[in-house]
Amino acid sequence: xxxxxxxxxxxxxxxxxxxxxxxxxxxxxxxxxxxxxxxxxxxxxxxxxxxxxxxxxxxxxxxxxxxxxxxxxxxxxxxxxxxxxxxxxxxxxxxxxxxxxxxxxxxxxxxxxxxxxxxxxxxxxxxxxxxxxxxxxxxxxxxxxxxxxxxxxxxxxxxxxxxxxxxxxxxxxxxxxxxxxxxxxxxxxxxxxxxxxxxxxxxxxxxxxxxxxxxxxxxxxxxxxxxxxxxxxxxxxxxxxxxxxxxxxxxxxxxxxxxxxxxxxxxxxxxxxxxxxxxxxxxxxxxxxxxxxxxxxxxxxxxxxxxxxxxxxxxxxxxxxxxxxxxxxxxxxxxxxxxxxxxxxxxxxxxxxxxxxxxxxxxxxxxxxxxxxxxxxxxxxxxxxxxxxxxxxxxxxxxxxxxxxxxxxxxxxxxxxxxxxxxxxxxxxxx
Amino acid sequence: xxxxxxxxxxxxxxxxxxxxxxxxxxxxxxxxxxxxxxxxxxxxxxxxxxxxxxxxxxxxxxxxxxxxxxxxxxxxxxxxxxxxxxxxxxxxxxxxxxxxxxxxxxxxxxxxxxxxxxxxxxxxxxxxxxxxxxxxxxxxxxxxxxxxxxxxxxxxxxxxxxxxxxxxxxxxxxxxxxxxxxxxxxxxxxxxxxxxxxxxxxxxxxxxxxxxxxxxxxxxxxxxxxxxxxxxxxxxxxxxxxxxxxxxxxxxxxxxxxxxxxxxxxxxxxxxxxxxxxxxxxxxxxxxxxxxxxxxxxxxx
Lengths: 431, 301
Description:
- The structure holds 2 protein chains of 2 kinds.
- Chain A is an alpha/beta fold.
- Chain A has helices at 2-20, 42-61, 81-93, 106-119, 132-136, 149-163, 178-194, 214-223, 234-246, 249-252, 264-267, 294-307, 313-335, 343-350, 398-401, 409-414, 418-423, and strands at residues 29-35, 70-76, 99-101, 123-125, 142-144, 169-173, 199-204, 227-229, 254-257, 276-278, 354-356, 361-364, 370-371, 374-380, 389-396, 426-429.
- Chain A folds into 2 domains: 29-128 and 312-357, Rossmann fold; 150-285 and 373-429, 3-Layer(aba) Sandwich (Rossmann fold).
- Helix content of chain A is 45%, strand content 17%.
- Chain A has an 8-stranded mixed β-sheet with strand order 7-6-8-9-10-14-15-16. Chain A has a 5-stranded parallel β-sheet with strand order 2-1-3-4-5, with helices on both faces.
- The longest helix of chain A is centred in the last third of the chain and has 23 residues, at 313-335.
- Chain B has helices at 3-34, 41-61, 69-91, 101-123, 132-137, 149-172, 174-184, 186-191, 196-219, 228-243, 248-268, 276-287; strands at residues 139-142, 145-148.
- Chain B has a domain at 22-227.
- By secondary structure, chain B is mainly alpha-helical.
- Chain B is globular.
């Protein structure tokens, strides 16, 4: 009896506690966003920052989050690891932000994830791609609001195999740092599993930021591989594609460029028709399902107006993170009987959350990884654009191509075979 | 490795060496005369590239001939040399010639950092690409491989021309001889009436202009991006240190050595590509700490 009584008291106390948990509505929801605002990767950070400002302005004009306006603090990832961590701590501990969005660089995500866990701050990894974070560790406070390197590379392999099934030889030219190496490990594992007879004729990892690929291009011209993969991005990718097309390499080999959606406009006529381009998700300013949507069109036009360029994938990524935080607060408010939730309740709401940025819906899985569909296409020249746009697009279902919860990507990829390739559905779209 | 690949590796190496030499020679010239290791040299390179790419873009968009790119490169180089190099020498370096080497290094490093931000303010962070000059000259097929005329022929010729002109300038003209005299012994030169301040200014302008010229020529072949100056300055230091500080012909030979080493690495062991310039530097400095062509200096009391 005594035991029962104390259990009842405990239950009552918990109930009381729950209702007392309703936090006061703050004057604003503060978000710290890390992005490269200097250095080569600022080609991603600057558009994302511009987009974040536009989206937040729009959010605040429409009631913010649960009636509370949103305020963003930006941190430059280009300042270096130590400075970034110090600034991260300052925003969490002194400015007392409600959530952090970090970061673009996978290296920075690796450092920040444990720090976020220590500081008990909700951290959305809004752009970084390393698949390892949730495969090697468990976190309570860290989530990723987009896909990771594995579905990005796997969908590229699938697109290549579906559109060009008879190719025999491949070469790779990736940047010499974690992303260049990891993406090739994922790509080549998946490729060898599904098409074991492919021959890798050359592997080049030129220095990050290299200004000159002439020697690699001479070598590739002598080797004549059917396919050349490059997961490079930014100025490196632009330089490689331009030097390759200047010297006719694009006439003899098919380029496979999983990040080239972010370079299409800059490359202009340097990227000819017939090459494979990816977008790190379903990110494309002419998104086949959204290009006629009024809100999407208005955003693209406003963005072009503000920055002089069409939105690229980091813009979509930041829109997803902002939509996720809004969704998490709204879910937590609803679960809390319309009261303003505390931080832990918002973190609880993230798991299983489905949200929608500029592209298709994304869902957060049990391991905190976002499940996102992948769009790839082949370049064509089309009226109205003085740069290559995408045709023969395929959209791959995120669930099928994301490493199952609890498994490690490379091990999982090596179990795939040709049947898997046929089992993954691809929705097709024309320009 | 057959003869075809051997020949290709040599072509690639020479083309690469030409650009590296143009930047390194300015750096070594400035060191030879001013005894300052100028980190801001990388900024002159980057600004030369940015200015050429952006001005070139405007000029060609207006419908002018792409061949105008070549005079434009020269104009940009001279302007950067005079406007930027001249101002920095006059208002900054001039005040610190008597200070310690470490302080001088820090000051030029500070200038480099400031100029990095200036580039971001002026040109933003998006890569620039303006290859009209390269495209105008077309391609050439050698041993079944397509090369651009610009990289295979024009760049090495320009590098050679710069080397010859610089040599003639230093040995045959009055200004050149004054520079050599001040390099040899500043005190003695001053005592016989040579205006060392003027010589310093002239040298710094020429050195800066050479770096900007290197950037201008490079802009036709590559994306002009933030941070390109930092990469170039590190490589140039390696060339200059390997050659021996202040050695112009030495810089040419070392650039060639490093260019060839790098291209052979791509053909034989791509993993070593990044390491090759520094391996060469390490080996040379182990055997000859003063550099391949450096002269061990007697300490002046």
